[in-house]
Amino acid sequence: MFAHAAQLAHLPASLEATVVAMIEVSGMVDLVVDIRADSGLADAVGAALDAQRPVLCDCEMVREGIAPPDGSPVLSLLNDPRVAPLAKAMGNTRSAAAVDLWGDALAGAVVVVGNAPTALFRLYELLAAGAPRPAAIIGIPVGFVGAAESKALLAQGIAGVPYLTVLGRRGGSALASAAFNALAAGARA
Amino acid sequence: MFAHAAQLAHLPASLEATVVAMIEVSGMVDLVVDIRADSGLADAVGAALDAQRPVLCDCEMVREGIAPPDGSPVLSLLNDPRVAPLAKAMGNTRSAAAVDLWGDALAGAVVVVGNAPTALFRLYELLAAGAPRPAAIIGIPVGFVGAAESKALLAQGIAGVPYLTVLGRRGGSALASAAFNALAAGARA
C-alpha cells in the first residue's frame, strides 16, 4: 500500500494493519521507521479484551478516540476529583497521579498513553515497585519534554510487558487511540 | 525558542504563540513551513469569544482537547442522533451531516475541524449557499483522503473568513484544539 512498505520489516507481521492505521491517522508515511513493538503485542491485547479487562487511558482525548470494545470498560481518571490533591501531595503531574489511581485495575489491562510522558514514567515506577502488571502498553506521548525518553525506555523493555511505541518526539492521542482500535479490530477478526 | 524561528516570517506576529503551541503539541518543528493563517485570525477569534459565540468542533476528540472559554459553548454534534439518518439521506459522511446541524449557531462562531475533510468541504458548500458566516475557521484535518485538498482551499480563502490551517497531510484533533487554546489564551491575555 505504501512506498515505505519494505520498512515494515522490523515490525511483527501481526501489526501490519496497526501500522497502516497509524500512518493513515497521522498522514505521515515515514512514521514507520520510528515504530517499535513487541512481537507478542497483538495476542496480548486480544487476550486482554477477550477477558474484558479495562482499557486505561492517560487522558480524555485518548478515551474519546477509542471505539469501546465489547465488555471492556474504557477509563481515563485524569479528571477524577482525587487527582489534583494527589498530584500536589506527590509533587508530580496530574497525569502521573491519575496512574496511581488505576490501582488493581492495572492487572491484565491495556494501557494507552497518548499525551503525558509523566504517565509512562510513573507507570514504570509503580511496576518496578510491584504494581499489578498490565497485559500491554501502547505508549505514544508526544512532544519536546520527556516524550522521547519515556518511549525509548518502553522500547528497551523497561515495563516487561508487550508494548507499542513511536521513538522520538512524534506521537499523540490520535495515534495512540488509532493503534488501539486497529489492534482491537484485529483481535475481533 | 526554535531553530526554525526565521521561518515564522510568513505568518502574522499575532500568531507566534499559536504556532509555538502547535509545534509543541505535535513534536514537529518543521510544521511551521506548512502553517498558513489570515492576519485577522487572532482578532476574529478574540471578538467571537468576547461575544460568547459558540465553538463548533467536528468531532469529540477536538471538543475534549479544548479548554472551554468563559461563556462560549463548545459543541460537537457528530454523535447527535439526527446525524446518521441525515448522512444517509445526503449520501455524505456523518462528519458532513453534523455540519448541516450547526445551523444558525454558525453565525459568528469559531469552527474547529481536526479530523474530517468532509466537514470542511460541506462547510464551504453551505457558506457558498448563504449559510451564516462564522467568525473564524481553524481547519486542520489529517490524512490521505481529501485533507490536503480541503486545507489548500481554505488557505486560498474559499470560506471568506479568517482561517488557520496546515498544508499537506499533517494535522489532527490535537493540533486543532491546541491552536484554538493558544488563540483563546492570547485573547484573554
From TrEMBL, chains A, B:
Keyword Isomerase: yes
Record-listed E.C. numbers: 5.4.99.61
Sorted UniProt keywords: Cobalamin biosynthesis, Isomerase
Pathway the protein acts in: Cofactor biosynthesis; adenosylcobalamin biosynthesis
Pfam families referenced in this protein's UniProt entry, alphabetically: CbiC
Keyword 4Fe-4S in record: no
Domain annotation Cobalamin biosynthesis precorrin-8X methylmutase CobH/CbiC: ranges: 6-184
Molecular function as annotated in GO: precorrin-8X methylmutase activity
Domain of life: Bacteria
InterPro entries membership: Cbl_synth_CobH/CbiC (IPR003722), CobH/CbiC_sf (IPR036588)
Single Gene Ontology BP annotation: cobalamin biosynthetic process
Family note: Belongs to the CobH/CbiC family.
Protein name in the entry: Precorrin-8X methylmutase
Species of origin: Paradevosia tibetensis
